[in-house]
Amino acid sequence: YDIYAAPVLSQSEKLRGTVVVLHDITELKRLEKVRKDFVANVSHELKTPVTSIKGFAETLLDGAMDVAEHREEFIRIIQKESTRLEELVVDLLELSKIEQGNFNITFMAVELDQVFEEARALMAKRAEEAGIELVVDAPVGLVIAGDASRMKQIAINLITNAIMYTPAGGTVRMSAAEHAEEVEVCVVDTGVGIDPEEIPRIFERFYRVDKTRSRHSGGTGLGLAIVKHLVDAHNGQIKVESQPGEGTTFRLFFKKKTN
Ligand code: ADP
């Protein structure tokens, strides 16, 4: 609590009483902590690739340039770390736009099979490189009220994760089904799964179940935070079911497009 106290005086300056104001700052303190943690996380996430890029560039200039195999290897690391930096900055800008309410959802009729197909085309190469079968299964003509480009972004983020956390030989399946009042969209993988107690936290910014594993595989830790915001903006719901060692299902529910 913040506490303010002030005497109340009469006209002849006699003490009549005291006013005490108790100001509950628990929520303010919590928000301030969230903000500080976020800044610390961002700084740390940005510093890691920058340090690596700087180090390898310096090593090259200090003579590694003359050794052909080092030259190639170090330049590749610089390229990889720059890509990571770029992804991080893109996700951060995206998240900050969304969190400031600085984005528009244009509610239109979105044909899910088309959105899925575009997402599949964009992710096909990555899935193939990871040795994962990417299956898309949406009935033609299934329509929801939403924003097609945002829906595609949701699909891409979920598929990216599903591929990242599924060992080679596995399957990632994206499907849609129609219920009485809503449309259900699923992204199912046969990957490493998520412990039940971790599930409530995975939508937090920068939260990772296994930090080393995730950073190693190139995640930014922001993908699901973005997904959650976009699903909320569509008045949708998102549920996660997972069986560690067997796989994970992200289940999304959206209002059907009526009329
Ligand atoms: P990241 O960029 O690290 O993947 P996300 O916000 O997209 O960040 O996801 C947060 C964390 O949730 C991940 O680090 C990972 O531990 C876990 N996770 C997300 N999707 C899956 C999945 N399909 N299978 C297993 N774990 C997952």
Automatic annotation (TrEMBL):
Residues 41-258 form the Histidine kinase domain. It is found in: Cell membrane. It comes from the Bacteria. This is histidine kinase. The chain holds residues 315 to 573 of 573 of the full protein.
